[in-house]
Amino acid sequence: MSKPTIYSIAQRCGVSAATVSRVFNRPELVSPRVREQVTAVARELGYLPNPAARGLVTGRAETIGLIVSDITNPFFPLLVRSIQRTAERMGSSVMLVDAEESAAAEVRHVARLRGRVDGVIVASPRSSSAALREAAKGLPCVLLNRPLRDLSSVICDNTSALFDAGEHLHKHGHRSFALLAGPSASWAAARRSQAIRGWARGRGVELTELGPFRATFKGGRQAGAALLETGATAAFAFDDLTACGVLAELAGRGVAVPGDRSVVGCDDVLLARTVTPSLTTVTAPMDDLGATAVQVLTRQIEAPGGAPEHHRLPGVFVARDSTGHSTGPRSTS
Amino acid sequence: MSKPTIYSIAQRCGVSAATVSRVFNRPELVSPRVREQVTAVARELGYLPNPAARGLVTGRAETIGLIVSDITNPFFPLLVRSIQRTAERMGSSVMLVDAEESAAAEVRHVARLRGRVDGVIVASPRSSSAALREAAKGLPCVLLNRPLRDLSSVICDNTSALFDAGEHLHKHGHRSFALLAGPSASWAAARRSQAIRGWARGRGVELTELGPFRATFKGGRQAGAALLETGATAAFAFDDLTACGVLAELAGRGVAVPGDRSVVGCDDVLLARTVTPSLTTVTAPMDDLGATAVQVLTRQIEAPGGAPEHHRLPGVFVARDSTGHSTGPRSTS
DNA sequence: AGGAACAATGAAAGCGATTGCATTGATTCT
DNA sequence: AGAATCAATGCAATCGCTTTCATTGTTCCT
Fold this sequence. Notes:
Chain A is an alpha/beta fold.
């Protein structure tokens, strides 16, 4: 026999299809007797409502789109998990799309998703603000880690955690610092650099700015090499991956960490704990970030055209083994 | 005005909706003049076909489901990317679901996806064969890294690469080996252990089996500790993550790699190249795995009830820095 | 010239659900 | 008792699209 529909159920129960539909959507409108019978028959037949049919009339897909700039970036897995969990709790599925680091792909995918989803979350977008605004026109949308006045956003703000990192290093005797800047197109990179500059100025310590470097392991190695050209005893890497590159480069050149230099990363990805020495870094509240994004999106879907919301969640500084007491300034090599 | 439909376009063009529909689906049936006009008007109105409506009549969602056992496992990102790329080329979107390492969640998600997708790929399932079989009943399904007679599967077979690894170590003078086994519920773990046992037997070398250990960094540290209790100079870790744990443990105890011991991992995840020393491991042909899985699934969707296909793609051994010459058997600590 | 073959189009029937409105008894109120 | 109210249900329209079948000119044979 073919797939069971509300009609086959209705027939078996001697009621109309409308009643069957109501059993699932507004059960309180149906008499208990009928309700139970329908439920029983539905289970027996293995009935599952057809989402396409339902979507056609309700206009809802019960699905949200999630576009990540680069799924191979270890920053994302936990975020994806958190978003998915929250979405599921709201009764929605998640359609994940990897933009493979391409800004063009991002907007292309937003267009592609339109119609298949009720709204979309764009995580760490690389696209220009104008392109994002245009792509999201008329589609509920939440930006993650990228603020934009007219679109809702949820960002992880590491400013104060980076202050803490600076203080931590300062307390350990460091006085000369290096800032290994991340990709110039990244909002997060700009923000972090700004935070560190601000801290250094306030503290009145010396800060050498290097970069920008690519946010990859290789970029980190270059950053590490550049670091050694300076007299800085402590370095702020853009993120953990970069920091790992730095560690590798230093290790390769026989420079001890944290003995000779201290390094701090950012994001607290899996890698941060598995590398030796384990990375001092800034933990992002992944669960909150994802959950908040989904909630904001849901609100946006339910009240289209509502005012955009902006949320700012702070990261938390974590001291591990890649930072320690300064042994004073060093010569270059 | 509301969303454009084939009707608004039809009206504007003075043709019937059927014609508009044909312009998009069977353009060769429409006269060039009309075709161009319709295309132009559609673009002007920003028309996008409604997937729900289309799906309702065609019975296709143009979407495939992808269930991964644990998205935080660094093994998956590249796989996801490859699957997505291939799916997109076939005109399908991907609905990703993370089972969070729970077998129950896997089958629950298969059920949830049914109806919303045309078929599903289950990557590295943890569920029992019976549960998988039952869950996939009547739904096109491809298993990744888990063979099962009556369901299609695509697996990565590292047997010969692990032989190569063994030979590589043997050539470097190693004669006493340790097998650090992975989780007993994992098919891949069983398979790898078996391969290594086979090789050792054939080679006539000493093989100490340890474990099973969890496939996590922590599990790796335990494995590392256990390794030091033995006289083995070379160890096969279940995967790269475990291997990294081993490296960390050894480093922590002042044991040099590859000076004192050699370690090989498996999978060649990002981590493998970023760790110091870089890991000798076995590279899985991610792109092929993903592409093959999607292709098989597509075939399965087009010809439901067709015979299941089974594909076996070999991994490739890569020598890096975590393996080297044996300095002979060592004492315990 | 008369009909076969064909190309281009339209009319209309679904696909499987939701939902506003109408209908039907039963209950309550005055 | 008759009207008003209410709970439970059915009817039928609708969502936007695909697709079969019928219709209409055209072109091409013989």
